Give the backbone structure.
Amino acid sequence: MSVRVVVGGAVFDRGRLLAARRSAPPELAGRWELPGGKAEPGETPQAALVRELREELGVEVEPLEPLRGEWPLKPGFVLRVWTAALRSGEPRPLQDHDELRWLPLDRVDEVDWLDEDRPAVAEAVRRLRAAEADAGEADAAEVDAAEAGTAEAGTAGAEAGTAGAETGTAGAGTKASDAGSAEVTEGIRPRTS
């Protein structure tokens, strides 16, 4: 028996995860899930996710990475989840859902997730937290580099100003005949604002 893939989207935007409350079928109504749907024969999970979220929520997403694993649903179906970034549109419940919520990571347990979605939600939250930690470290490194660059530029500018004064040039940025003055010209940039 072949297994059909149901693709779910762990859609992230500004550190929040999108949750969708089912309106049908009756046995699932009122419970929450990662939005998505069945992949058509020959359709990749990524293409299915883009199509399903366009149809169900009226948004465009970019599939990023698959979560590890798959989760059995009813016989003949498995759930596979991809992280996805919201690229355009404001999610609205157009099909199969009656409410949507953007959940901050510390509040994802406030909704009654479908049992099959719980492990995928936990993995999605773990990944988003790791990505935010990595981004925080990268931001800190950029700030450190910018501060170091500013300090170096300030030191170079002060040294260049001193060198300019010592060589008797008319001002910073003025071409002079000796090599020391040429370094002054390179080290100082005119202010543009």
